[in-house]
Amino acid sequence: AGMKFFLQYVGCIVAFFSAGFLIISTWTDCWMVNADDSLEVSTKCRGLWWECVTNVFDGIQTCDEYDSIYAEHSVKLVLTRAMMITADILSGVGFLFLVLGLDCVKFLPDEPLIKLRICLVSGVMLLLAGLPGITGSVWYAVDVYVERSSLLFHNVFLGIQYKFGWSCWLGMAGSFGCFLSGSLLTCCMYLFRETSSGRFHSAYPLRKGYSSATTVVTNTHFPSLQTATSKMYAVDTRV
């Protein structure tokens, strides 16, 4: 039981931070940052939704939102948005399911099998959340690296060159955390499923035996009643 609680709580903590990392990564503006910041008087960051410029000296930040989502954007931007939003939804819902499945939460306290299945569903959802999260963040980072490397290889200097920033790293960390917490929860389900099943099945025969014994005790009254009734009928007949 102690190991079960430990796995649940560790999975819950990791899932909480992982979902938070994915959400913060999706809605922050530093997926790409200018690589030559030592030569610049400002730091330029690009996110999935807007681009921000921060002055190095006074710290003033100016952000420009991209055009409408219906406007024409690069495939990298559109697919990364879709995958990160999917990861956010799956990880958030998976964390909520996990909270309901914890033994310390008074939700279905007399149904341990159902609570374990809730933990299994949560683990599967977190594993699924890690897949689009890691795909979107790694693909975005690789695309930025390839773009920069091709410019350097062809000696093309556009004035600003980008590398992937902390938002992209945060997306990768959240995705790996989802994989870790999902693995812990699924293992927790399969390790302790037989124990809970054994308790359930051991309790079931007791209830069944009790009900059958009650039936036997109840049925034992019928012969005596029938005997008394037959004796009375015999006496009335002789009379």
TrEMBL record:
Predominant localisation class: other
Any GO BP: monoatomic ion transport
Membrane topology value: Multi-pass membrane protein
Pfam families: PMP22_Claudin (PF00822)
Reaction catalysed by this enzyme: K(+)(in) = K(+)(out); Rb(+)(in) = Rb(+)(out); Cs(+)(in) = Cs(+)(out); Na(+)(in) = Na(+)(out)
UniProt entry tagged with the keyword Ion transport: yes
Segments passing through the bilayer: 7-27, 120-142, 169-192
Subcellular location: Cell junction, Tight junction; Cell membrane
GO cellular component: bicellular tight junction; plasma membrane
Keywords associated with the record: Cell junction, Cell membrane, Ion transport, Magnesium, Membrane, Tight junction, Transmembrane, Transmembrane helix, Transport
Molecular-function annotations in GO: structural molecule activity
Family: Belongs to the claudin family.
Record's function text: Claudins function as major constituents of the tight junction complexes that regulate the permeability of epithelia. Forms paracellular channels: coassembles with CLDN19 into tight junction strands with cation-selective channels through the strands, conveying epithelial permeability in a process known as paracellular tight junction permeability. Involved in the maintenance of ion gradients along the nephron. In the thick ascending limb (TAL) of Henle's loop, facilitates sodium paracellular permeability from the interstitial compartment to the lumen, contributing to the lumen-positive transepithelial potential that drives paracellular magnesium and calcium reabsorption.
PANTHER family listed in its UniProt record: CLAUDIN
Name listed for the protein in its UniProt record: Claudin
The organism of origin for this protein: Illadopsis cleaveri
Lineage, opening ranks: Eukaryota, Metazoa, Chordata, Craniata, Vertebrata
